[in-house]
Amino acid sequence: MRVYSGIQPTGRKHLGNYLGAIRHYVTGQEEAQAAGDESIFCVVDLHATTVAYDPAELRDRTYDTIALLMAAGIDPERSVLYRQGDVPEVPELMWLLTAVTAHGDLNRMHQFKEKSGQQRDLVSAGLFLYPVLMAADVLAFRADRIPVGDDQRQHVELMRDIALRFNARFGGGDPQDPSKPGEQILTVPEGTYPTVAARIMDLQAPEKKMSTSSGSVEGTLYLLDDPKAAEKKLKRAVTDSEDPPVIRRGPDKAGVSNLIDILAATTDRTPDEVEASLVDARGYGDLKKAAADAVTTMLAPIQERYRALREDEAAIEDALATGAEKARAIARPVLADVREAMGVGPRR
Ligand code: AQP
To answer: If you take atom 25 of ligand 1, which residue's CA is the nearest one?
Structure first.
């Protein structure tokens, strides 16, 4: 059971990234090890170049993100932790996979539609091809499971389609006939999504997901926010005007539902248990205070470890060099199989 996930080194990582993804990487690391397999985590610097960005900042944000993953519990000794740009097998595989990727499918991607609308000067071809690179990230390692937040479902479905189509087209099956899947040259991975907090919403605009590239500073709780700032953001979170206030989830209560989810995920309870624990609350203030206490308590040790790890860039580079070697050793034979099946390069 091989686990794989990637995260962008853009901007500052937020509570949604942590509850929706990073903490499940840590569980994935344990599960893969227990199953005698690899867990592989990547900071996707190549993906970050698909929108306007500052090159000097990209390198710094990459170190930030690696240090944060390590502070959250990813251990480069037990997992493969690497930087995407250090593993050239992946972009090569991406190009080969474009042969079995439908232009129409890429055109339907929500993320492309949203992000292309935000670009002022240039909508890059890279932004359009982003999901194929993401497919190559995962398929290059024959991963079985991908822990991601709910916003990545469409990309995961596309990578599964790409793998299925590749196996049928180049593995001797029939792309038009699902009963003839062909040889499993590429593993068809499965997305795993959190049961609670799969999509954390913006604290000021709870109908939108908490996001790096859109959304306000007040609505986004950053993992490195100091406790006062984090508390202030949660205490000022938008709720609703139900009178008297009722702490329950519901489609008409996006802000309150989000706070319940945050509190449930940070205290390892179900949302029902959180609601039950607050039946006697005097108002939304009690929910906000409980969420603020839980989040700041959860973040404190991560922030402390982060500060120590982030100081030592040479140690981060050393860990990345080892990670790249391990990653390339896994990806190289997969790429060789793909080239062979596609008739690219000399016969093996
Ligand atoms: N709001 C969220 N709730 C739950 N999970 C989330 N993820 C992102 N936002 C939420 C999950 O975090 C992982 C890493 O995402 P990424 O590499 O796309 O990093 P990012 O650029 O910081 O994420 P954003 O905020 O989603 O950026 P924008 O809005 O700029 O695209 C993924 O597994 C994702 O599901």
So the answer is: 211
Tell me if 85 CB under 6 Å of ligand 1: no
CA 192 – CA 5 distance, rounded (Å): 10
Architecture of the domain made up of 227-307: Orthogonal Bundle (1.10)
User: From the CA of 149, how far away is ligand 1's center (Å)?
Assistant: 7
pTM above 0.90, yes or no: yes
Task: List the alpha helices (DSSP H) in the chain.
Answer: 15-17, 23-34, 45-48, 55-72, 89-97, 103-107, 110-118, 125-139, 153-170, 227-235, 254-266, 271-277, 284-310, 313-342
- Whether 153 is in the pocket of ligand 1, judged by its Cβ within 6 Å, is no
pLDDT in tens, 232-246: 999 999 999 998 899
Domain with CATH 3.40.50.620 in the chain: 3-198+313-342
Within the chain, all domains assigned CATH 1.10.240.10 are found at 227-307
* 213 pocket-lining for ligand 1 (C-beta < 6 Å): yes
Give per-residue pLDDT as tens, 21-37: 999 999 999 999 999 99
CATH placement of domain 3-198+313-342: 3.40.50.620
How far, in Å, from the CA of 211 to the mean position of ligand 1?
6
Cα 201 to ligand 1 centre (Å): 11
Q: Atom 14 in ligand 1: which residue has the minimum CA distance?
A: 7
Rounded to 5°, angle at Cα 72 from 69 and 217: 80
